[in-house]
Design goal:
The complex is a heterodimer. Helices cover 44% and strands 26% of the residues of chain A. By secondary structure, chain A is α+β, with helices and mostly antiparallel strands. Chain A has one domain. In chain A, strand 1 and strand 2 form a beta hairpin. In chain A, helix 1 runs antiparallel to helix 3 and helix 2 runs parallel beside helix 3. Chain A is extended. The longest helix of chain B has 40 residues. In chain B, helix 8 packs across helix 9. Chain B has two domains: 74 residues, no CATH class; 189 residues, no CATH class. Classes of the chains: A alpha+beta, B alpha+beta. Chains A and B meet through helix 1, strand 1, strand 2, strand 3 and helix 4 of A and strand 1, strand 2, strand 3, helix 7 and strand 4 of B.
């Protein structure tokens, strides 16, 4: 088990983790509209919905415990020489397959830059914008205390 | 003698057909969609996900619709559904200190890094029925926004622990017990207790937590911190060998700060009660944290005198799906059981009558005997 790991991984892996994280948060339609025409891929593992047991830690930073499960859909595809994987929260099989396909395509250096720009960057920007908007909503509910001075 | 009973099939299907009709209600009104339940009954969805122990908003909303709003029935449906799915594995423990916060309040410090963020809360509302909500279709304007501060939002418990005033949590990387795989056994380790409480009935947690405040195992709790928001869930697929993010889930965390007088080996310090639940479930997380702390009585050398401190009592009765199963089975046919009870009772009554008759007979005989002797 890694613990509070800052992920000191080599960059290629960090980059792949980052695009997989973006795809896991993107709806199937959102990926599909951005995706350019792709050559046919082979399904190594058809999309399948299952569960992952989510763990927490006692007191937030103590011993691990099983909190409860979440639905997750996985898929694996082959595109050329690359194998793309997806494990995404929820039960959307189309999203899982598209995410695995994009993961495979992004492993091809010849396609990577174009796909990062066409698919990952806009998805990431939209997700960041939603996070920022929520943070601003939360900030508006932040309490500003003031002191009542009594004078005699 | 065992008598097999068949029949009732027609009555059952007619009953279920009527159930479907009552679920739909007045057909001149539009039917509720699952998406509407998911969006507009969000806290009910959160409760069903927590008690059904399965984070999936759509499935929880579907279960609520199917159960006509009976949330325990809905949690039951969700638990039953999850048994049909394969498990891919367990996630890395979620990092709640890195939570994307909608709400964060502390009752122990006014000014603390990250501040008091109220988020979408019922707190400070006047609890007056809002008849404006009865007028449908009114557009609600966008709420206010403010520049979001950047910077850490440290845990209150960590601030205290750095000063040595808060007991550090024991960290061991042992595989935690899993109630979905092994039945509950005693003594139950804290990870198993926390799993049990996280999916326990909200009313039960609330009532037991309340009992500790009223003196049944009191620990003078303070809400160190409540956090509501989203955390990323990381999972390491064996075929990849490195952790990836599956997405984010909604979560509520409560850290209760409790007194501890200290022992021969430990100085007086604060101890934690911990609550962590799926969705936005503050009442549930607070109840869980109070009960978690109460159940640590033995480990902390405190007397076990109150129901909330009794692990067997608490953990065996917290699950509303088990509880409803056992309580509600009483309404199913018990004809044979009852016949035997009835037979038993009649036999007791008959023998009591016979014994009385025999006693009367003997007394009469004795009286007669005395009378005869007197003659």
């Amino acid at each position: 088990m890694t613990r509070n790991a800052p992920h000191p991984m080599p960059d290629p892996l960090g980059e792949r983790r980052a695009w997989m994280a973006v795809l896991a948060r993107a709806g199937a339609d959102d990926i599909a509209v951005l995706l350019p025409a792709m050559p046919a891929h082979e399904r190594l593992r058809a999309p399948e919905t299952g569960l992952v047991m989510v763990r927490g830690r006692a007191g937030g930073d103590g011993a691990a415990f099983n909190l409860g499960e979440m639905t997750v859909t996985r898929c694996a595809v082959r595109l050329g020489d690359a194998v793309g994987h997806a494990y995404v929260a929820g039960r959307d099989k189309r999203q899982a397959e598209l995410a695995a396909l994009v993961d495979a395509a992004l492993q091809d250096p010849a396609r990577r830059d174009a796909l990062m720009e066409a698919v990952i960057a806009p998805l990431a920007a939209r997700q960041q914008a939603a996070r920022d908007a929520e943070a601003r909503r939360a900030a508006a509910t932040r309490v500003e205390f003031f002191t009542l001075a009594t004078m005699r | 003698m065992y008598v097999a009973v068949k029949g009732g099939g027609r009555a059952i299907s007619a009953a279920h057909a009527w159930l479907d009709e009552t679920r739909r209600g007045d057909t001149s009104l539009p039917e509720l969609t699952v998406a509407q339940v998911e969006q507009q009954m969000g806290l009910a969805v959160d409760r069903v996900m927590a008690e059904g122990s399965c984070h999936d908003r759509f499935l929880a909303a579907l279960a609520i619709k199917q159960a006509k709003g009976d949330l325990i029935e809905a949690a039951f449906l969700l638990r039953a559904y999850r048994t049909t799915l394969v498990r891919f594995g367990a996630s890395e423990p979620v990092e709640t200190s890195a939570m994307r916060l909608r709400r964060r309040v502390s009752a122990t410090y006014k000014d603390l890094p990250g501040g008091q963020v109220l988020g979408p809360t019922f707190d400070y509302t006047h609890r007056l029925l809002d008849f404006a909500l009865a007028a449908e279709g009114e557009a609600r304007g966008e709420g206010p926004q403010a520049p979001a501060p950047v910077g850490e939002v440290p845990r209150v418990t960590e601030l205290l622990a750095r000063e040595g005033l808060m007991q550090r949590e024991a960290t061991d990387d042992a595989e935690p017990g899993d109630l979905t795989r092994q039945p509950l056994a005693f003594p139950a380790a804290r990870p198993v207790r926390l799993q049990n409480l996280a999916r326990g009935d909200e009313g039960f947690l609330l009532a037991l937590g309340y009992s500790t405040q009223r003196g049944y195992g009191s620990n003078h709790p303070f809400v160190g911190e409540i956090r509501v928001g989203h955390v990323a869930v990381e999972f390491t697929p064996p075929e990849l060998g490195f952790a990836i993010e599956l997405g984010e889930i909604a979560i509520t965390e409560c850290q209760m700060v409790n007194q501890f007088k200290g022992s021969r080996t430990e100085p007086a310090q604060f101890t934690r009660g911990y609550g962590l639940v799926f969705g936005h479930g503050e009442r549930r997380a607070m109840g869980m944290a109070l009960v978690d702390r109460a159940l640590r009585a033995e480990e902390l050398g405190e007397d076990i005198a109150a129901p909330a401190q009794d692990a067997e009592f608490v953990l065996y009765h917290s699950d509303n799906i088990e509880a409803t199963g056992f309580v509600e089975h009483l309404k199913l046919p018990h004809y044979v059981d009852f016949q035997s009870e009835l037979e038993n009772l009649r036999t007791i009554r008959r023998s009591a009558v016979a014994a009385e008759a025999a006693r009367d007979g003997m007394a009469e005989a004795a009286r007669d005997g005395t009378a005869e002797a007197a003659e």
